[in-house]
Amino acid sequence: MKLKSSLVTRRNFLNGLFGGWAAALAATFISPLVKFAWPPYKEPDEVTLPLADYKDMKPGEVKMFPWGAKPGLLKKAADGSYIAFVGVCTHLDCNVVYRPEQKKFFCACHDGWYDEEGKNIAGPPPKPLRRLDTAIEGEDFFVRKPGAKA
Amino acid sequence: MSARGILGWFVDRFGLKPILDYMHKKEVPQHHHTIWYYTGSSILLFLVLQIVTGILLALYYKPTLEGATASVERIMTELPLGWLVRSIHSWGATFMIATVMVHLLAIWFTKSYRKPREVTWMTGFLLLVFSMMFGFTGYLLPWDDLSLAATKVGTNIPRAIPVVGAWVTQFLRGGDDVTGDTLTRFFILHVCVFPLLIFAVLAVHIILVQKEGMSLPLKAEIEKKKLPWLPFWPNFVLRETMIWLVLLGVLLSISILFAPSLAPTADLMSPAPEGVKPEWYFLFLFQTLKIFPANMGPVTGEFVAVVLILLAVVAIFFLPFLDPKPQGRSGKIVTYAGILGVIYAVVMSIWSLL
Predict the structure, then answer these.
(1) CA nearest A97 in B: which residue?
(2) Taking the alpha carbons of B86, B346, B99, B251 in that order, is the dihedral positive or negative?
(3) B293 to chain A nearest CA, in Å?
(4) Residue B272 is nearest to which of A39, A42, A107, comparing CB atoms?
(5) Residues A108 and B276: beta-carbon distance below 8 Å
(6) For the segment B243-275, what is each residue's pLDDT rounded down to a tens digit?
(7) In CATH terms, is domain B31-271 a member of 3.40.50.1820?
(8) Judgement on whether residues A110 and A82 belong to the same structural domain of the protein
């Protein structure tokens, strides 16, 4: 079927064509700028600590180490092995603290509690504390994301 | 050329005649809800005070990890009246947000958002959101323990939103975690991005208020009742000035008597301090997040809480469209919802302080 008149006027067509072209052009300029505003800082895959600082820990003791821009918590288990946690609450990211007298990790922001294995036991935290792998090589103590390559 | 001649030249060149005529003819209706009209100009007073004191603070403030707390300390101890400038800026934020809330509730309960003022309401709600964002970003700038913990929590909340949430959190923080970049970013949001946004939306808001004129009480409008009118200039402006002076006096007195303190500088590695509390206008949201259980079926309690809060925000933004009959059933429902909302916010806020 042939329409008597076009549904789109020449002017509308050209407006759409030019507008679309201008929008595409703007997008090519804006997208790299948006990328700039997005963050370069990522959580580390691995940190290296001096073994000397941590080898004299007593069983059950918990020590802090810097995991990028947030705290990590290193615990020496009863059998002498090390367990590393990311020291932030799984609820809303506040830094947690170890309470040795109760053998629990505590988050002050919303009253979150974890047992000494990092398991969430009370309050709003939905998940256990994140665990990290540990390794000793020579005088270095490595803490890695699980699965990260050495 | 005489002063009048110079003035006339400007009026002519800028085409200001219609605006001047409008201001001369502008009138404000007199009735038992007239008092709420003054809340708008009171907000403007506080906004101007925030701009002036904010510019003064920015002359000396340094938005870096190493320098932030020290620069605030310098403002408070070394610079002439610096403690007062900071105190007015801090208390001014509280006064401004409180007045914005009163303004919003007055319009909620008098139903002035009804046709044809839907967009005025929506821009107004955006202005409340921006005001709260000003408060949120400004709270971090002194960079002490409390503000750091509040910012960690606040910037983590979007993460509960599926798909886009993690991006928002990363954008706000400038990375996976709160770092010195977050501080710089919050500063620039606080002094550049939000000011541009708030001016743009405020301009639309104020132009729309002038275009539609002051809204009448629902009853007077339906009954086409004749109300007495007060000339805007000089009668109404004179009354506004008196209210401004009183508010300024109250703000100054409180700022002098209860100047904010400065805690030791924040340490990214130290545990969150006990008694972490956001500013009072976020307390009800803070408590809402706290009372949700860790997990609710397949999702986290935080997710449910954030979705409910977002739904409420969207509903309030589109309120004029949810209330097609302000004088009828839907209007009653909105009134009761407003009362319930206020009770909820007050109870939650008090509970969070216990």
Answers:
(1) B271
(2) negative
(3) 6
(4) A107
(5) yes
(6) 999 999 999 999 999 999 888 898 888 888 887
(7) no
(8) yes
In this prediction the pTM is 0.89
Give the span between the Cα atoms of B14 and B95, in whole angstroms.
Answer: 36
Query: How sure is the predictor about A150, in pLDDT bands with cuts at 50, 70 and 90?
Result: low
Decide: A59 and A77 in contact? Cβ < 8 Å.
yes
For B271, which of A37, A95, A111 is closest by C-beta distance?
Answer: A95
Tell me which residue has tokens 């294995």: A117
| Residues of chain A found within 8 Å of residue B274, distances taken between Cβ atoms | 108
Assess if residue A89 is contained within a domain: yes
Q: Count CB neighbours of A138 within 10 A.
A: 6
Assign 3-state DSSP to chain B and report helix, strand, coil percentages, each to 5: 70, 5, 25
Question: What is the domain-level CATH number for residue A53?
Answer: 2.102.10.10
Partners of residue A130 in chain B, C-beta under 8 Å = none
Given CB atoms, is B270 within the 8 Å cutoff of chain A? yes
Number of H-type helices and E-type strands within chain B = 16, 4
Tell me how close the Cα of A114 comes to any Cα of chain B, in angstroms: 13
Is A83 domain-assigned? yes
Q: Are residues A30 and A99 in the same domain?
A: no
Write down the domain spans for chain B: 1-28, 31-271
**Domain total in chain A:** 2
